[in-house]
Amino acid sequence: MKFTAAQIAEILEGKVVGNPEEEVSELAKIEEGSKGSLTFLSNPKYTSFLYTTNASVTIIDEEFELDQKVSTTLIKVKDAYKAFSTLLEYYNQVKLNKSGIEQPNHISKSAEYQDDLYLGAFSYLGDNVKLGKNVKIYPNVYIGDNVKIGDNVTVFAGVKIYSESLIGNNCTIHSGVVIGADGFGFSPDDSGKYAKVPQIGNVIIEDHVDIGASTTIDRATLGSTIIRTGVKLDNHIQIAHNVEIGEHTAIAAQTGIAGSTKIGKNCLIGGQVGIAGHLTIGNRVKIQAQSGIGRDIKDDEMLQGSPAIGYSNYNKSYIHFKNLPETMNKIHQLEKKINNG
């Protein structure tokens, strides 16, 4: 799909300097721009590339002043970085603007959906499924019985959404995600064998939640596993049964959260963090990557290490740990002096 500089400027409320009919059909880094590509300049470190780029159109700040001629058509905007981000979102919407129902698929007679549904091939909609407006379901998606999905939700290929799950509006669920599988519930008996504890709860995902590829969110034993509004989950995260994650919390890849732990609002959790079960983590908590959390955390704490301690204490302790061989050598030398009188 091609756009002219004039069309792009209208979308971004910018001003064209150069040829308004210059066409672009792809996006590129400014140093890698070629004919027919669109790029942007916001970091002064890349200013030199503005005068050498082969990109057809470049977005720049309106306050930027040229000190030599350029071959690229310019679009001047208030904030080039934000404008380019807006354009990326617009481009993504156009690229993903699929519609219609592909074949083959299975749609239960009791399923309800809107006329603007996109349903990819080999997908399955179970009994009593209810889909909102502008829902896009890519190929090979399974949606179990009694699932409800709100408006403007995109479910990418290969997602599995088990029965009874509830998903709000404006959510994005990436490939390989599993929502609503059984929680890890087993009870040992006297013989050492494990009997399965039925998992009869569900998963609730509120509005504006993004879930990265291959993340898994288990259904509750009783009640609900809840992902609150605005939560952002990276790839390969495990969220166990009855966990609750507060509004606008962001969690990086390969983190595991054990059952029944409650995480507050606006928390930032790094990659490969392990969080034990039945804990309460406060609001605005920051946990550094690869930390292990085994206790309740108060609001606004910043933690690192395994088991995790205060972030500043960890840094101080690490300095001593790094210098431990030298420190031990000094201690041994002092012991020799003392022993030799």
From TrEMBL:
InterPro entries xref list: Hexapep, Hexapep_transf_CS, LpxD, Trimer_LpxA-like_sf, UDP_GlcNAc_AcTrfase_non-rep
GO biological process: lipid A biosynthetic process
Record GO terms (molecular function): N-acyltransferase activity; UDP-3-O-[(3R)-3-hydroxyacyl]-glucosamine N-acyltransferase activity
Family matches, as SUPFAM superfamilies: Trimeric LpxA-like enzymes
GO cellular component: membrane
Domain UDP-3-O-[3-hydroxymyristoyl] glucosamine N-acyltransferase non-repeat region: 23-89
Gene3D superfamilies listed in its UniProt record: Hexapeptide repeat proteins, MurE/MurF, N-terminal domain
Keyword rRNA processing: no
Keywords: Acyltransferase, Lipid A biosynthesis, Lipid biosynthesis, Lipid metabolism, Repeat, Transferase
Enzyme Commission number(s) of this protein: 2.3.1.191
Tagged with keyword Glycosyltransferase: no
Catalytic residues, chain numbering: H241 (proton acceptor)
PROSITE patterns per UniProt: HEXAPEP_TRANSFERASES (PS00101)
Reactions accelerated catalytically: a UDP-3-O-[(3R)-3-hydroxyacyl]-alpha-D-glucosamine + a (3R)-hydroxyacyl-[ACP] = a UDP-2-N,3-O-bis[(3R)-3-hydroxyacyl]-alpha-D-glucosamine + holo-[ACP] + H(+)
Pathway this chain belongs to: Bacterial outer membrane biogenesis; LPS lipid A biosynthesis
Enzyme class, broadest EC rank: transferase
Protein role: Catalyzes the N-acylation of UDP-3-O-acylglucosamine using 3-hydroxyacyl-ACP as the acyl donor. Is involved in the biosynthesis of lipid A, a phosphorylated glycolipid that anchors the lipopolysaccharide to the outer membrane of the cell.
Quaternary structure (record): Homotrimer.
Family: Belongs to the transferase hexapeptide repeat family. LpxD subfamily.
Name of the protein described by the UniProt record: UDP-3-O-acylglucosamine N-acyltransferase
